[in-house]
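Lab notes, practical 5.
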Amino acid sequence: MSKKGGDDASAQLAQQARADEQARQARIRNGTERINALFNGTPVPADTTTNPTSPLRPSDSFAGDLASRLGVVNGQTSTAPDPLAGNTFKGFNDDFYGGISKAYQDYAMPQLESQLTDARKQLAFTLARGGNLNSSSRATQEANLQKTADAARLQINDTANSTANQARTAVAGAKSDLINELNTTGDQTQTINDALGRVTALSQPTQFSPLGQVFANFTSALNTQSQAEKAQAYSGGAVTAPFNTGLFSGGSVKVTA
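Output from the prediction step:
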């Protein structure tokens, strides 16, 4: 009798172990589907499993449908609210990443245009000071200024795209971490709560750094050359500018008492 009793107990333990593993795999499958739907912005499947931290009600015979036992915790049906029941997040889709790209362009382009306006004013002032507002030097310098501005616009577009791609990478990494967590712990409830936290953080507006001084080299070179040509003019040629752009009118200046 003792042997038969031992065999029955071993069989029951083995059956319980299989049932527990089947329940765990069910939680993982269901949780994975829900995480993917949350991140993709598709309809989220219902939670068909129980809180994995609570033991399933033991069954003396281990008979019956496993699914009917998954909804029972300590003899009571689980009534914990589904944290995704009211989810309205539209997902990390192309519109989301496109929005990040556009947000950066909307942030950086006005800064560029403001700097360009200031640089044009400085160029006009420098040319006017040298009496060269209508000279060929003005066309040359404005062409250089426009070239710098065009390069900056391309850089802004590149930064907008790379910022969106960085967000894609962060989202993919977060989802991978959550799936790994779910597979490791089998705890769908905790993983879903963690997923909500990650989604909330990742969906926040991106913080951008202010645009640098795009025309700093241009205006610095403008001032340096202007001062050199001014020194050349005032010294009567004793001081020679590296090259002549016409930013400051030539000729000697005689100072009298």
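Observations recorded by the TA: The chain is about 65% helix and 0% strand. The longest helix spans residues 136-185.
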